Amino acid sequence: MQHPSLLLILCVLGRGQADTEKIVNGVECVPHSQPWQVGLFEGTNLRCGGVLIDRRWVLTAAHCSGRYWVRLGEHSLSRLDWTEQIRRSGFSVTHPGYQGARQNHEHDLRLLRLGTPARQTRSVQPLPLPSACVAAGTECHISGWGTTNQPWSPFPDRLQCLNLSTVSDTACQSVFPGRITDNMLCAGGVAGKDACQGDSGGPLVCGGVLQGLVSWGSVGPCGQRGIPGVYTKICKYVDWIRGIMRNN
Prior knowledge:
The longest helix has 10 residues, at 238-247. The protein is built from three helices and 13 strands; from the N terminus they run H-E-E-E-E-E-E-E-E-E-H-E-E-E-E-H. With 248 residues, it is mainly beta. A six-stranded antiparallel barrel has the order 8-9-10-13-12-11.
């Protein structure tokens, strides 16, 4: 049976507003089909997405700094799904090479340790880390509660999903000259389909494993034709991630 205080906590937290990267022109995900998806809240405000990679660990973007209420097993943010688990983030580690968004966004990842381990259910499951990097042209998908560029529904209540393909480094470099490194992965570039504000730190899933975290993109509106989104390339960080989890 669900803990009776959960409803009270959800009412207190509310839906909130997102202020970082959001799915544009996605569709509502099949409920609980993304059981690793996490929402990171500051009070009532949705700040970022994240991904559960272990019962005790969530991976998000380094630029999603702060201490959060971590909401797992969510689909609708305003209604009780009876699958939710709420945890407080405690100890966290930002990649030591991260220099901030004012530099080049490189090493944009951060590990959050949950105060209490998540309980694995049908709706709450960790996503495996990759054993190899993903090839250009691979079909993947992203998910999040970020902005949809629809003025009448700026913050969707239900989790949004979007299929998109990875883009070659050469093609991405031509869009962002001198800004793409070996630690970044690009995907998308189809008009009107992109991550956007509120999705930062959320997962790019390819072949059932985590290949990217939503990191940055164009300065203008999300989802511009020919301008892909840029993701932290997780295959480059597996050893670092596992080392942090093992030693903490």
